[in-house]
Amino acid sequence: MAGYASPRISKELPMGKEFMRAAADVFPLALSVFTYGLAFGALANNTNHFTMLETVMMSLFVFSGAGQFTILSLLQQEATLWTIAISTFLINARYLIYGLSLGRSLEQCHRGHLLWLCHGITDESYSVGTMESERSKLGMGYLAGAGFVVLLSWTLSSAAGHQLGEFIADPSRFGLDFAFTAAFIGLLVVLLKTKSQYVAAIIALLASAAAYHWLGTSGAVFAGAASAFLVGVYSK
């Protein structure tokens, strides 16, 4: 991770090399995604009785870890379609903030390319994309590579978890439910370098904790992301 502190470089790499560098950068996070995906696949099979095809298609097209777990929970509670749609939108609203943040550093590209690039924006690809933007211009190849590796890891692990569902009846027994959280605590510690960043992290933590008390997981995620974003904007 220390390499990310290097000065910005102006020379642009070919798209293929950008793609491969992003794949290497995001690989450690993709491993945590894989363990998290195993938990999702197991729950989709055991709790919601999804077929393998349904599980894989949800991971391919919804492609939202926390959002997909929320969908499983709401389906189990027999929630209405509107409740599921609104809850999923709220928990995924942070991706709007991610897109605005990365867009400032992204090289110019056709609007049509943005349609498929935005599907690959996740917590993991955003994290490595942010660090990449600190050392060079963020290219399409880099963002595509990071998103593809995470998508591949998430989809494959969802399928594997579905197959292993009978052996992973309770994912928390194996610590799979904490893998996602642990990976990002480690990543956050590496990224915190300035006073304003520490302030943003602390305020986001407090906002998330308060929102969770009244609004649940979806509200906590959005409150934390929004508060950190606002602190970053006003500290410039």
Summarize the structure.
With 236 residues, this protein is mainly alpha-helical. The protein is 75% helix and 0% strand. It has helices at 15-46, 52-61, 65-76, 81-92, 94-103, 111-117, 123-135, 140-163, 176-191, 195-234.
Structural class: mainly alpha
Rg, nearest Å: 18 Å
What is the β-strand count? 0
What's the rounded overall pLDDT mean? Answer: 80
Number of helices: 10
Distance between the termini: 25 Å
Query: Which stretches are low in confidence, meaning pLDDT under 50 for 5 or more residues running?
Result: 1-11
Q: What percent of the residues sit in helical stretches (DSSP H or I)?
A: over 70%
Tell me the strand percentage band. under 5%
Order of helices and strands: HHHHHHHHHH
Instruction: Report the major sheet.
Output: none
What general outline do the C-alpha atoms trace? globular
Overview of the molecule:
Helix 1 runs antiparallel to helix 7, helix 1 runs antiparallel to helix 9 and helix 3 packs antiparallel against helix 4. The protein contains ten helices and no strands. With 236 residues, it is an all-alpha fold. The chain starts with 14 loop residues before the first helix and ends with a helix. The N terminus is likely disordered.
